[in-house]
């Protein structure tokens, strides 16, 4: 962010040539964003999209299928249809749209768990304290719960932890194939995915490169539910090592390539310690690939800037710009050798450990 205008132009909200300004209705809609998010969450929790097939259904049929009160379900669906999530046919039935299909659990590109994760109960306690987070340097989530986000998830909110892991697996699954296609792994025999979630990215890489071996490091409760392909008895188990741990404490893994994808989004001290631990564990010349959605160069600034605030609240973290990531990697002693898009939303920062 380079500059912020402090005095808006006088014409900012004035009607132009008799055309009523859209500013007031737009602002009213904006402050009702919570109603939109809650409506998507309710539809996902009720399983409405899963209950609706390719043939349009009446609200009554859907209400029976999901165990809802028909008149109220109709109100929920009307509100969603206004935004393009479901549509009402001329004879008053409910039909799928491109967006409502994404709420189906069995959709190949399903966003069901991402929608649930972004609207989990704890989010509704943290958003009202955004002004506090902006005013101070405290982490709102830690203040409310007296413990860090991941500790809270695993100690106090196991259902939310499961939603989070499924959401991460969904987004990994969607980017894993692109990452496997993007990555040139010539010369790499050992890869380590740090904070690799349930291991979808690692499994995709091991499947694509039959001689490659790999380690998955994540929190113990996450690694315990790793992708079955990587676990004992799984087809990739003989080439996979599961490493439960805390990457801010230690990274007990030697590899030629370290992948750090969507991890360096927490507080700066955690980022500093994680990168320092990678540098300490890696052999000289090892490759370190940091993969992130950026605040610059993003085709979805509305999503990325919202996620930036979400991270500020729950982990005292942030989304990065190219410059801020390069600065942190360089400060850790890494030589950044290139930045390339993996897909329109993700960028890979390639670097080497000195030596
Ligand atoms: C945003 S997710 C990213 C997961 C995966 N890399 C991906 O891109 O899909 C963050 C991951 O960091 C893990 N994590 C959080 N704190 C950690 C820690 N201290 N040590 C290791 N992993 C951690 C979480 O369990 C989660 O899997």
From TrEMBL:
Residues 29-103 form the O-methyltransferase dimerisation domain. It holds the Pfam family Dimerisation. It comes from the Bacteria. GO terms for molecular function: methyltransferase activity. Residues 127-333 form the O-methyltransferase C-terminal domain. InterPro entries: COMT-like (IPR016461), COMT_C (IPR001077), COMT_dimerisation (IPR012967), SAM-dependent_MTases_sf (IPR029063), WH-like_DNA-bd_sf (IPR036388), WH_DNA-bd_sf (IPR036390). GO terms for biological process: methylation. Residues 1-16 have a biased composition (Low complexity). The keyword NADP does not apply. This is Methyltransferase. It comes from Streptomyces lonegramiae. The lineage of its organism: Bacteria, Bacillati, Actinomycetota, Actinomycetes, Kitasatosporales.
